[in-house]
Amino acid sequence: MALPTPLQAFSAVPKDQHDETQTITDGEKMTGAQALVRSLEDLGIEDVFGVPGGAILPVYDEIKDDTKFHFMLMRHEQAAGHAAEGYALTTGKVGVCIVTSGPGATNMITPIADANMDSVPLVVITGQVGVNAIGTDAFQEADIVGATYPMVKHSYLVTSAQDIPRVLTEAYYVANSGRPGPVVVDVTKTAQTGNMYYSWPQRMILPGYNPTTKAHGHVLSDAAKLFSQSYRPVLYVGGGAVRSKAGELIKQLADLTDAPIVTTLPARGVVPDSDPKVLGMLGMHGTIAATGAVQRCDLLVTIGARFDDRVTGKLDAFAPAARVIHIDIDPAEIGKNRQPDVPIVGDVSTVLKDLIPEIERSQAIHGRPNLKPWWNAIDEWRTKYPATWEEPTDGSLAPQWVVRQLSDQAADDTLWVTGVGQHQMWAAQLIDFKRPNSWMTSGGLGTMGYGLPAAIGAAVGGKGRPVWLIDGDGSFQMTSEELAAAFFDHAPVKIALLNNSVYGMVRQWQTLFYGQHYSATNLLDGEAHGEEGVKLEANGDMPVEVPDFVKLAEAYGCVGMRAFTKDEAIECIKKANEINDRPVLIDFRVWKDAMVWPMVAAGASNDDVTYMPGIKPLRDDTVTGEPATAASEN
């Protein structure tokens, strides 16, 4: 029998048992709403995103001109959540948003799930109806604690004003400690309007919550021993390494062991691409060198990654000859998809600080394996299979070329954000990442509409760093209303819209796997032709193009530009880089039949990766990286 959710259980308690009489009299007397705002200030929160509504109005009434944090009004609750994500990823701090009950809270479910999948620390404060109305189907009542229960790190239903400072202290700590994630704090209107006595700091009550950060036992020496026996090692680095700010340590480990670095989508840039040991992203749309290295390795060092299906392809064919070291702060990830030979539970940075000296001691005794044959094989893949693309046949721009131009003309400290789709993969493949924590994208959930609000959050957190959003016309339209929020908050986001007039990634799959049946993927927002190539007209003479993205940008007070040719594209990018007082949108008209290569079909082995149509390097290749002799370097 299914157990009741916390809100269902609460609604079954007789209402007269809830006595709001305060027994605590130490501290400053105030309302729960005042305490909530004061708690955020005392936690050091600098920026908050949200949308007001009836059940959270007491809190909004306490957000005033002299409030210590900056509040940013978004235009949709989902956007508030994604903006908080972008802010958290940019700053390394907890993202905070405040929304109302019912639909306001349920609109937050998508960013909560997104943050949960990508380990982003959020505190989501939602309004809730009064205690006496819970369970009555009151106006805008929704069990948000129950609805989000499977996708939050923790959640609270607050019924007493006195609990608010402690709960927010705990929520902030839980969100940002251990494996980061979203925490929901559902605050009843009763708690907001009730009186309490405020004191700071608060003592947390978190029995049993004690994340392991330091490796225990002999696992470090076991890991060092595997390194000493490996002639084809690979460092497989995931988003957990980014959250742990472990980029410099990963570079140290790679330099010490001479192992190549491959990354997941969220970990792009954890070590700058200029480092010769960085092979790029692996998996479904990864580089041939990265995917090939993992498939042929004899030691897979998994650092803050979780063996996602987009990385592994067919799981039982993934890195088939490799012994595995798995470092992760979340013990639930260890052995979930791949059983490691050496499991190490702990914070990535803390573990690597202890592991590197252990490897140095081992090398002093045993020397370092000769990896020259391994690097010869890797360099052969890199030389034979570089990033490339097909040129358009219709005279439009190659979207890959546009991304490369954006990267080449960008400042070194640029923050990069994407929506979800083909443009996201091209950005991951072709941007030259120069700094860690400069990449924001929706990885695990793949949320279309993530891009613009996340870019706004990145602009707020970046404090003047340039922000480029690379988005698709389909993904962008899911949250385009946030141009208003960007304009009024002076968030100078630069938007590169790769406009192919279709849902590009869906169309790619329809082309490859569904007999070119383009069902429900033609958007008609960048061309004036219907599905059969027949010109469509409105009012007898006006071509249909809905929306006109340049006019849309201008309607929101932003700068709008359009580029059909390479010369126009270069000029638009140059102008956009010079504008820093308002958002800029460039409508790049790109080829709708462009595809993302390389590609591994869903469920296939990574050995079946296709570099370009008809070319399967890992099936055709005899490269192994095996050493000719077991020579060592001392």
Low-confidence spans:
17-22, 529-536, 627-634
**Beginning-to-end CA distance, first to last residue:** 63 Å
> What is the CATH architecture term of the largest domain?
3-Layer(aba) Sandwich
> What name is given to the CATH topology of the largest domain?
Rossmann fold
Helicity, as a percent range: 25-40%
Oligomer category:
single chain
Structural class: alpha/beta
Total beta strands: 24
Tertiary shape: globular
What is the CA-based Rg, rounded?
A: 26 Å
CATH homologous group name of the largest domain: Thiamin diphosphate (ThDP)-binding fold, Pyr/PP domains
H/I helix tally: 25
Q: Indicate how many domains the architecture comprises.
A: 3
Q: Mind telling me the CATH class of the largest domain?
A: Alpha Beta
Q: What strand line-up does the widest sheet have? A: 3-2-4-5-7-6
Q: What portion of the residues fall into strands of 2 or more residues?
A: 15-25%
Q: How much is the average pLDDT?
A: 93
Summarize the biggest pleated sheet: 6 strands, parallel
Pathway: Amino-acid biosynthesis; L-isoleucine biosynthesis; L-isoleucine from 2-oxobutanoate: step 1/4; Amino-acid biosynthesis; L-valine biosynthesis; L-valine from pyruvate: step 1/4
Pfam family, one: TPP_enzyme_M
Domain Thiamine pyrophosphate enzyme central: 221-355
Domain Thiamine pyrophosphate enzyme N-terminal TPP-binding: 30-145
